[in-house]
Amino acid sequence: MWFDKWEIQVGDSITQKIENGIRENEYLGIVLSPEALKSEWVKSELGAALSKQINNKKITVLPILYRKCDIPLLLSDRKYANFQNDYQTGLEELAASLGIKNAETISEDNWRKFVGNVSVNWKTYREAEYKKLVTALVNRAKQYNWSAWTGGSKNPYSITCSAFVSLNKKRSISIKLCGVKYMAAFDDEINPNNIARSSFVLDVGNSIEECEEVVWRIMEDFKNKYGNPVEKPHYHTQKFTGNVETRMSQIREFIQQFDWYNEETNKKE
User: Fold this and answer.
1) How far apart are CA 258 and CA 190, in angstroms?
2) Per the confidence metrics, is the pTM higher than 0.70?
3) Residue 123 contacts by C-beta under 8 Å, 6 or more apart in sequence?
4) Domains in the chain, CATH or no CATH each
5) How far apart are CA 28 and CA 149, in angstroms?
6) How far is CA 181 from CA 19, 65, 103, 156, 204, in A?
7) 243-267 tens-digit pLDDT
8) What is the pLDDT of residues 34-48, one digit of tens each?
């Protein structure tokens, strides 16, 4: 693989480098956009590639339409990979021309397909989805005046929503991402860290919408039977790590950043 911005350094002959890159590769991808077509580099790359293709047919020029523009006459009869509206479609078209059958890119919608793949950072997408789940369920809890608590290292990717009217009028539901699917538990707990994984027995599904619907139905049912809780709800959604002392230390360090008075310096003096 040869990429002009990687290969061409200050002081190098642009023309020579481009010719070398084209000579050593079988394919040349030309990204088409109004800005690219004004670039002398692109013109040089395209001219050298077409010249080689005419002479010995050992390089294939692959037009990649990034943004709408006037396609050069020399490329007007060639099918291009269209990235204008849908990146995935354009990538699949480009991959097909290279003989690659599966060119699916990772996203928040399909990260589950990449779990275990060490070459893809799928955990980032899992965390992004969990953050959206917490946001959706906390917003729902606020509508019904329920409390919400997210799990920590003891029970990661979990959240409990709870309501309390009286000792015999209370309800909790916990949602946890177990592997690639969401499971629900109904233990009488407000803190998901106190719930065993074996308690998550109801298969909710793979989407935030499915989780939200299950939680909404339970909240609505509780409201119809007992009304909404009247006491002030609590929301514990901070992402802290470690034991209580560690957490308190983190809090003190954070607060100290906003204090003009440096207590530690004063002690030394």
Assistant:
1) 33
2) no
3) none
4) 4-97 (3.40.50.10140), 123-243 (no CATH)
5) 53
6) 51, 37, 24, 14, 7
7) 556 666 666 776 676 666 665 555 5
8) 887 777 656 666 666
